[in-house]
Please model this.
Amino acid sequence: MPGIGTFEITYEDPHSKARLGRLWTAHGPVDTPVFMPVGTQATVKSMAPWELEAEDCQILLGNTYHLNVRPGMDVIEHFGGLHRFQDWKSAILTDSGGYQVFSLTKLRQMTSEGVWFQSHVDGTRMFMGPKESMGIQRILGSDIAMVFDECPPCPCTPEYACQAVERTLSWAAVCAEQPRAQGQLVFGIVQGGVYPQLRERCAKELLALGAFDGYAIGGVSVGEPEELIMPGVHMTVDILPRERPRYLMGVGQWWQMSESVAAGVDMFDCVMPTRLARHGTVFTRNGKYSVRAAGNRLDERPLEEGCSCMACRRFSRGYIRHLLNVSEILGVRLTALHNMHAYFDFISRMRASIREDRFGEFRAETARVYGPAPAE
RNA sequence: GGUGGGGUAGCGAAGUGGCCAACCGCAUCAGACUGUAAAUCUGACCUCUAUGAGUUCGAUGGUUCGAAUCCAUCCCCCACCA
Model:
């Protein structure tokens, strides 16, 4: 078995920058391109670990900020780390809390050393800087820790984006020096908003630290116009080293993933399959739709015809629509089960298309079904 | 039979002379969700040829410049007493 942190590139697409790879972690291999379900609070909402295992899920996310608020590190330490706590045997990647700098803007204050958060649960003030974040991730024992970054919103001024890059870089340097859990990898994060020069500078200085096992593109899909996303991904990926895994944080629209893979991205995570499931929307090979729609009332077909997930094998749309309408827990469990299956199916079909030299077709088909609405 | 209370849009429920096409909740319908403060949020919800018009608050008639709101009669429901 290759050493922890090894990233093997097993195939490169001659027609795009896509590649197939395998990243070795302390809890096994992760085959890329990969979709990582988000399990912020030590659970992928509404799903049991064995249901993810059934999808051959090799890696999950956890969240530093949220797990530090609840249950707190004393509990995690008591249970011997996040894997044991939630009984997840494969890899875990922990987000550093950098995204909460963005999503909890109203509840935090920036300083150059770190961020004061006011707990969204009980208002308690807590400080998180690069040291604190890495300290928590060490206790969590994740396989991949992310550096603590500042994820600025869009729109934001070039001056502010520049400041965020500077903070992210200085924090990254601190993160790189912190003690890690055994076998823990650490990824750097490129910020820079919609400003290519800033992204370039951030990427190059991160590389110069020479301390990271992989590189992430952060601050994407935080309010910027759709047409700015892909060019930014392309230019950033092009600076990152070929031999290290690349992770596009938070992005999960299907066509964005297939285009990003074509640009050379290896890893994705997104709340979309589970969140939309809870809100009654399901993904299929032919697009997404709302199960709650009136037209599904008497529909005896499964959520998606031909789908082999547990929800589709047994239940009708009409039944699942009913469960959602009466707020029965099983309803959102079934849509989540289906959406997660659809996401894994999507990624595995994408991998197969690369391997079989059909990736161009695959991208075209994905864009046709899931692409952004053509500009008016 | 007597006494008291009550009938408001799919349901529940405010409103007791003009600011009422009528608060609010539920249900229903549509849309949004991208490193999860999200089983959440936004909007629509009498009708129409719809930034305007028409018809509503048990029924009919009346008072009034103006009524869901006041008066009369009738119909129906509930409680208690016979």
